[in-house]
Amino acid sequence: MMERWKHYSPQLLSILRIVxxxxxxxxxxxxxxxxxxxxxxxxxxxTPLTEIWFAGVLELVGGALILLGILTRPVAFLLAGEMAVxxxxxxxxxxxxxxxxxxxxxxxYCFFFLYLSAEGPGPWTVPALWHARPSxxxxxxxxxxxxxx
Length: 149
Prior knowledge:
The protein has helices spanning about 1-5, 10-35, 50-70, 70-90, 100, 105-120, 125-130. By secondary structure, the chain is mainly alpha-helical. The protein has one domain (about 10-125). Helix 4 packs antiparallel against helix 6. The chain starts with a helix and ends in a 17-residue tail after the last helix.
């Protein structure tokens, strides 16, 4: 039973990547567009060109690229670094314990993205779909007549 389940590991990696990226994108849309909810405490958006605003851009654009499986390794490495910075700047000063400082999502995203940067996106990506498309075959061009001397 476990051997058969293990066979689906690549597809499950793709599902994990897609779901995690969808959730990660929501952090960016919250910061940039106050959607689906604004940033706490007042429910607004990040001030443009601030560190929080740039984090929102990384989360929105990087999350979309991860979701689609485009440039997964370098983007995931960049996002792992973003989440490490977020943890140590915003969460770690409050407490060592993630359950106390609210940093659990940042740590999990950090290590998930670090793993993706090494493992890759899995088989279900937009580039894989693009390359799997059947090519349009054109009938062979008629050969030009040969002139014999």
